[in-house]
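Notes from hallway chat w/ T.B., transcribed later so I don't forget. T.B. wanted the structure written out for a chain they're using in a teaching module, and asked if we could keep both sequence and structure tokens in one place. Agreed to drop them here.
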Amino acid sequence: MPKRILVVDDSAAIRQSITYVLQQGGYEVIEAKDGQDGLETLTKMEVPDLIITDVNMPNLDGIGFIRRVREQIKFKFIPIVVLTTESQGDKMNEGKEAGATAWIVKPFNADKLLAVVKKVIGAA
């Protein structure tokens, strides 16, 4: 059974790119278009092994999404990787305080993304 990853990003192109890389790595991927959609998707699926989220999104941004995920007991310990253009220290600290596990700055390359995913949840 491949490990399941929820990808939350408002850019369809970025979601497709992340999904492609992860599927090539053997992971199962579920996509959500923003933080609000991500929360709704989480309630309809089995608990994922990992969540990858952007920060800057409409409806519910990544930091708010992480906080809302961490409020729910069954999602409290799911690793959350932030994949974003945000590289300022204060934004990273805000993400860590909200409950982010790791932070990758866009643009990303496939090898780095897969290396971080494998480090956080292991091979597919």
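Follow-up for T.B.: The mean pLDDT is 94. Might be a good example for the class.
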